[in-house]
Every structure is written in C-alpha cells, then in structure tokens.
Amino acid sequence: MMAMDQGFVKGLKSYIREKTPFAESMYKAWKGGQILRRIRARYGEDTHVFLMRGATGDTYLQLALIENYIRERHIASYKIIADSARCRELGSLFQEKDLIAMNGYKVESIEKAYMLMGSRKLNLTILFPWTYTLYFNRCRLRMTERFHFMDTYQYYVLNLKEGMRIRRPRFRELPQERLVELGTKGLRKGKTVIIAPEANSVTQLESALWNKIIEGLAQKGYTAIVNVEQNEGLSAPDYFCAYAESVPLLEYAGYFIGLRSGFCDIVSSAKCRKVVIYPAKTARTDYSEHRTEIEFCGLKRMHLVEEDDDTLTEIDTPLVRNITDARQELSGEERAGMTVDGLLRRFRAGTGHELDNDRMLLSD
C-alpha cells in the first residue's frame, strides 16, 4: 500500500509539472492539509496552528502580539509554522519554544489549504494575510491615515481588544570576546554610532551620503560601525549583529542611525540615542500594498517607543522612498529636498544643539 501511495504521488507530481496551475494549486492544498494532519498527530488534535511569514518587522510584531490572541481565545495548545531562519532567530528572542521552521513550498501549501478550506476547518490562523501567494485580503483600508502599522496586526489580523500587551524580547549580554572583537573595529563605550544603512521596505541612501555622515561623526570624536553583511563602499568597519545582541550592543555604543526597517523594531527598546530615517510622503504614493512613512510606521506612532521619549529622533526625507515607489517621478518641490545637505539639515534640526555630547550631533 505504501509503495502504491508513493507511486501515485510521484505520478501526480509529474502530471502537475506538465499541466495547469490549477492542478498544482490543488496538489499544494492537499499537501498543506497533510502537513497539518501530521502536526496534530504528533502534538494533539486540538493544536492550533499559526502560520508566520513576512519581513523582520512583520515577524517581530506577530511575536510581540500573539500572546494576546492566545489568551483572548483560550488556546491551550499551539504551534507556529515559520518560513525562514530569521523567524526562528526572532522566536528565540521571545523565548518562543513552539515554533517549527519549514521551507517556502510547505508554507505555501498550507496557504493553499487555507484558501480552499478556511481557517475554522483547519484550526489555523494566518498571521501574514497579504503575502503574494494569497489572492485576497489585500485591504487598502489598513493603509489609510486613520491607522498605523501596529493597528494592522491588532485589528486587521488578530482582532484584539483594546488594552493589549506588547511582549518585549529578551537579549543576551555582550560576551567579553565580542567586546574585544568589536574593539578592533573601533568600538568605544558611549562614543560609537551603529549605522544600519539597509532596509527591505525603503530605497537605500547612496554610500556617498553615509560616508559624509561618517566623516562628520569622526570630526566630532565619534567612531562608526555599519551593521551590514557585506560592506559596499562605506568608509567605516562593518559588523553584522545577531538579533540577540543588538540592544546590548547599541546601549554599549551609545548611538544608532538607521533607515526604517524591521531592525528598528527590534532595537526600539534600546536605551541609547537613536535617529531613524523614513521616506517623505509624496503626492502619489502607492498605498495599495506598502507604506513606511512616519505616519504609518513611526516607532512612537506604533507605541513601541513612548511619545515623550527624547532619546528617539524620527526624520523623513525625499532621499528615501517606499520601495513600491522607487520608480515614481517626483514633483519639483519634492526633488528640491533631495540633497545631502538637505538631509543633514534635518539631522541638525532633529537632534538639537543644546545637548552637546549627550546626543549625537551633526550640527555646526
């Protein structure tokens, strides 16, 4: 019987490769159902399954809020299926032991089963309903002025009550060998700026601008370390920080500058001076699927940082754009602000002049 089943599946796969996408979708739906059945055979029939996908910021919020959903719905047993090593690394920050990593094909198969049979029948919650493999639930309403990114998960995805609790991750202390390693790159306690120049959600600033910022910091007695996997043209040493050590590193260094990315969510609780750079609003921004401006993704707007916390400075600039608007033409007024000096003026205005070395300054 087993040999016949294996032969049938092999033949079905061969058929799918040569036939229509509909046949492939039906096979994936069957496959997704099988995966869920195997999970419940191992962990119990009443096990609720969460499907976790998305970029770093999405995954961070899913993990930060999921306890509220579990508590409000009295879920006794659950497992989280995640589609990347990044999800597992973030899960460890939240001491999440009920996380199972799977490849993208298996996760997409579960999504197809969800589309065919629905959430209730499968006892399944989709935590990232606007992935491109799902052909519905693309709600433009969540991107309008009334809401922000945290609202997207609180109301749109999880339907949580007011007064929800945001779970915070736990970080490990920087080991001595890490401090020694970073010391060779110029790390000095309270006098180093960690720069995060990369983001998936917005366009990148040119290396020339970052290098001008790095040069300005050096003239004022600060060292800079860039948080990148591969340093391409930046005039500061690089070190790609593990999530678990990110907040301790920033607090030791004293300062942080970064493009708005999921990494900013992770380090939002760091007790250091932080400058986060957002895209400026444009007249024709496409909000159908993506938005990263301060009004939607601001760390204070999302309640990840208290409104009166003066350690965080949030600025926007036309030099940075939503990734979905990368090819959009700017108006003359918007283009006028797209200069290096224009951004540096925003730094000066945002960081102030009165705090001297207690705050990262790029002022004259």
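That was protein one. Protein two is written in the same sequence-then-structure order:
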Amino acid sequence: MISVLLPYTKPGVETGGPLQSIVGVCDYLEKEHEYQIVTKCNNFKDTAIEDMEVRHKTLLLPKFTLKKLLPIINKSSVVWINSIYSVPFSFMPLITLLFSKRTTVLISTRGQLLQGSINFKKKIYLRVYFFLLKISRNRVYLHYSTEEEKENSYPIFKKFRTLLFADPLKSNFAEIIKQKTDKLEYVIGFLGRIAPIKNIEFIITLMPLLPDYMVFHIYGVIVDNAYKKKLEKLVFQLGLEERVVFKGEYLYKELEELYTHIDLAVVPSKSESFCYAFFEAIENKKPVIGSTGLPWKKANTFEPNTILPLEKEKWIKQINNIVSTSHNIDENRQKNLEQFYNFVLKSIENNVLVSFESLVE
C-alpha cells in the first residue's frame, strides 16, 4: 500500500499546484499500484481537485497525530510525504516513523529547498529533520520535479537517494484564442501566491518603463501580508496606483474566464520547482514570459525568449515585441508553446511509473 499524505489547502481559493501534482500522480498510480490518499481536508469544492474523492480512495483524518498515523504507516510499503515545513503533514509523520515498522519514505520537496527560499531558521529545522530521518532507519528518497530543482536545492539531503519526475499536466487547452473586448488597455497578468519567492516587484518596477496603456493586474491569495504591504508601498512610490491593481483571490474554476481579461501572463519567480501557472497560461492560449527561476529553459528551443533572466531590458524588449506582433505570429507562438507543453507531458507518465516501481520493488 502506498499512503499519499495530502497537505491541507484553503478550500476554494488556491489553485493548489502541489495538490494538482499529487492527485495527478495518483491518476497514473491507479493503473499499477494499490494506494490511498490520507488527508484532513474535507472540502475540495472549487479547487483543481474537486473530483478527487470520487476518483481515488481517500482516508479523511480529523488530525494528523501519532495515534492516528501509526496504524496507517504500519500497513504501508511506501509513505509519501508532500511537505517539509508543515508540522501536521511533515513533522508529525516523521515522528511517527520513529515508532513504526521500517518502510520506504518518499519526500517531495515542492521547491521548499530551493536556495531562494532558505533562511537561518529553516536551516536549523532541516538539520533536525535530517537527523530524525537518519535515526528512523527507513529507506528514504527525495523527489525533485526536475534536474534543475535538484541542482539548485539546499544540499542537506544529498546523501539520500533521489527520484526525478515532473508534475502531471491536465492538457486542457482552450478551444480558441479568446480576444479581450476592451482594447483601451493592455493587461499584463500575474496569477499565483502573493509571496516573496514570486518576485512580483520585478514586474512593478518595469511598469514606468512601459507605455502608459499597459497595466499590471495581480491575482492570487496573500500568503505574506508584509510582502503585500511592501508591494503596495512600491506601487505608491512609483506613482502607479492607476496602473497596478491587486485583483484579489480567485477560484480554480474561474481561471478560463480570468484569462479572457489578460493579454500577457508573466511568471517572474526567483525560483520554482515546477510552476503550474506557466502551463496554465499556455492552456488558455495566452503569451507567457517566465524567468530563469523556472526549470523550463528548454521552452526557448520551441519558442525563443519565453524564459528570460531577470534583466529589465530583456523583459521590456520581449513585452514590446509580443504587443507589436500580428495575430498570425501569435498563433505560431501558441503552436510552438503547445508543442513544448506536449513534450513535457509525454515524459511525465513514464517517469512517474518508473519512479514508483523502484520504490515498491
């Protein structure tokens, strides 16, 4: 039995990239393996995994405690932990593993070890985490989405074995390129968590250097209030109150509609392990620019200048280039990005199945 520990998410607000990934992997596992999803979340309405309980065996726990987790882990050949810093969903399972029978432990880092997200407190926590993993004497694997994530992650777990497989994609492409009816402004859009790792200030600082008819709309759940205030202060200092707008939270089912109000999607992250927002823009047939913090430099071989270093001149040039291109060039760009999307998609299922075969052997 593979026990998949599913972290809690705020129902109906976040698109939940990690949750999409975990449940997407389970879509592959059902063909070959016995598994169960263990979670305390009981409300998936309006999330990207709304139909999860219908499609997958799900065990709901009121709390992740030693008493509740121990019998589950004792019956598991593989325990898949999907968070590192969460006390209930990562640390408590790790404590339970000290008292359980020996098993195989898979830990998905979810970008939480990337150098841009590590601070002194986290380094201390990770040392404790590493020590507990060692004394549990289980077979431990670290999961990274890409080779780039592995190379750029804090190396404290480098002695453990690793598995590489990217997050499953849904391949839900919009049928046509939807054109915005309001042509008085050109909307640059960010969709995701409002958090420092997302580097939203980079786009804000570009706005004074772009034509006045361009505006920047920021959609997403606030996970760091201090960071949101920092962004608001920057907007005020640059006199951009009319051109930079925080549009608030959104539901996953609203994504397609939101993209009809966006002309260009941007992902200026400092670092990412996968980044569903990048692929969701492609699904919704919108031009997208991502930073080299994303592990998708390969996209540039399909469509040049899709992934750029965080250099203002290069972003401004590419934004202006996209704005000035004809409809035919837009269609060619979309075709090239969909080819890249399908290239990534084809590699995922095989990598997932091969990885889990090595876990259960």
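The first helix runs from residue 17 to 29. Keep this in mind for the problem set.
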